[in-house]
Structure formats: structure tokens, C-alpha cells
Amino acid sequence: MAQTCLKTATRQERYDGGLGEATIKWMWNEHDSYEFPRDTSLLDHMVRHLVREGKEDLVWKWIEQKSRKSSNLGPNDRFVWRADTVKALIGAKAFASDRDSLDGALETFFRAKNSTYSIPLSPARMNCATLLMMPAEKAGMSSNLDAKIETPRWPNTSVKLWEAFLENVDARQDISEPFQVQLPLYHPEGPNPAPYFKYCRKLAKTPILVQRLAKRSSVTPWIGRGKHAEAVLRQQGHDEDANWLKEFLQDLHTKSEPIRKKEDQKREKKRERKGSKA
After folding, report:
1. Where do Basic residues bias regions lie (predicted)?
2. Do 58 and 84 reside in the same domain of the chain?
3. Torsion of CA 253, 249, 230, 264, to 10 degrees
4. How far is residue 41's CA from residue 199's CA, in Å, rounded to a whole number?
5. Which of 157, 130, 111 shows the shortest CA–CA distance to 224?
6. Cα distance between residue 225 and residue 145, in whole Å
7. Rg for the chain (alpha carbons), in Å?
8. 26 and 128, same structural domain?
9. Among 143, 141, 147, 142, residue whose Cα is nearest residue 243
10. Do 273 and 143 belong together in one domain?
11. Does 168 map to a domain?
12. CA angle (273, 276, 278) in 5-degree steps
């Protein structure tokens, strides 16, 4: 019931009814018997409303509350609770921004990072990185892999905050499709394709790594960002590098066809489920 009300209000862009505040107070009072944090959809809607209602302080009180022992809450639930709430808050701050800036979202990340409470940051870090690399216009995966320069969704993000976030990407854990080589493609002062290009060169020398990448669902955004990198390289006059990258991405696109088909099937089933509930 709570999720339905919040979702309807969100769809209608009604954020003045106090639904976020009412929901968070209800959830906190009832959480001993409520299976939270499994319902992340409810959490996302609730946090979005709280941000729009100007009640962000309630979100932080929620995040930094001490755990109440309960037979229904395991020892790790509190950490998951905090991690998912910070992730939701970052998204809410991003899409509530009225100046095309992710400053509020990044400030949320750093507040969580510097908190005296234990907050797992992996979900928040992933969300921030994804938002920083989000283009203004989402390009689909075209069959001919046309290269196109992307405009960042939030071009007015503080360079200082952006660079501070990049420094906080842990290279030891960031090993599959590293943010450290993707994020520079979306620097607020202009794209830098060199780290991405050099990493692709490195990948190409180890075929088994290419095969592993081709089997991950993250290969689709990786290729999409590669198309952006190729276009920037051409704009900068590095046609030879751009041609090499184009061939590499085409090969990766071919190798990743099975996983892309699987992801397409998942999306189709999800749409069918939503349609049946409507």
C-alpha cells in the first residue's frame, strides 16, 4: 500500500503531501517485523519524496540510527540498510538537481564516506560513477556501432568534487571494467579518451580477459562508452587510434552477442510482468 501511494505520487510529481515523512516514520516504528531492506523499490520512492519534501535530515537520522536487536534482523541487515539508503539518496539528489549538477549527489557520497558509522560504500560508489557517466541522450546499441560524442547529463558538476571522487575509486577492487579509465571520458571540462583507449589496448593483448568481459552484462555500457571514446579520438585527430578502437569494439560486440540476447530477454520478461500488473 505504501509503495503504491508513493509510486503514484511520484508519477504525478506530487511531493507536497508528506508521504515520505509518513513512510519513514512508519518503517522505523515497524522495522522489527518488517523485512527491510529487501524492498529497495519502496526505499527509492520514499527517499525521493523526502528529498523533495526538504526532509533529508530524516534520511540521515535513518542511516545513522543504531541497530535495534531483533530476531528478525540479522547482524548484516544494518549495514545493508545503510548502504542501500545512501545509494537511494544519491540518486534522489541527482534527479532533484535543478542546475544540471551532481554536486549534491557527490557531497552525499563523501558525507557517507566520512561518517562515524560503518556504511558500505560499494553501492553508492557504483551509483555515483554510473550517474557521472550518464549521457544527456541515452544512445541504444546500434548494429553498425556508429561512434557519437556524448554530452554529460550533468555538465555543471564541480570539477573539484568530480576529481575527488575519481581519487576515491579503489584501483585494487576496481578491476573488471575500471571506473578509472571510463570516468575521464565524462570529465566536466571535456572528455579524455586516453585512459579508456590504453586499457582496451591492454585488454587486447590478453584474449581471456576479452572473453570474460564479453560474458558480463556490463559489456553493453562498456561498448557504448567506447563508441563515445572513438568519436572523441576522431575529433582530436587520432584517426589511427580511433580505427583500432572501432575494430576492437566490433569484435567485442560480436563476442558478446549471447549475453546481450540474454539481457534483452530479461528486459522483455520484465516488461511483460509490468504489463500484466497494469
Report:
1. 268-278
2. yes
3. 20
4. 35
5. 130
6. 11
7. 21
8. yes
9. 147
10. yes
11. no
12. 110
Number of domains in the chain: 2
| Sequential pLDDT tens for the chain (278 residues) | 566 666 666 665 666 667 888 888 877 776 554 455 566 788 888 899 899 999 999 999 888 876 555 555 565 666 788 899 999 999 999 998 877 899 999 999 999 999 988 888 999 999 999 999 999 876 544 445 688 899 889 999 999 999 999 998 865 555 567 899 999 999 999 999 999 999 999 999 999 999 999 988 889 999 999 999 999 999 999 999 999 999 999 999 999 998 878 877 777 777 777 666 55
The Cα–Cα gap between 179 and 122 comes to: 12
Cell reading at 265: 530477454
What element of type H or E holds 262?
A: helix 257-277
**Measured distance CA(119)–CA(63) in Å, rounded:** 9
Same domain assignment for residues 127 and 206: no
Q: Is residue 193 part of a domain?
A: yes
The answer on 97 and 72 residing in a single domain is: yes
Of 90, 93, 95, 159, the closest CA to residue 129 belongs to 90
Q: Which three cell numbers stand for residue 72?
A: 528478525
274 and 151 in a common domain: yes
Q: Are residues 147 and 96 in the same domain?
A: no
Q: Whole domain around residue 112: which residue ranges?
A: 1-132
Task: Tell me, yes or no, whether 196 and 70 share the same domain.
Answer: no
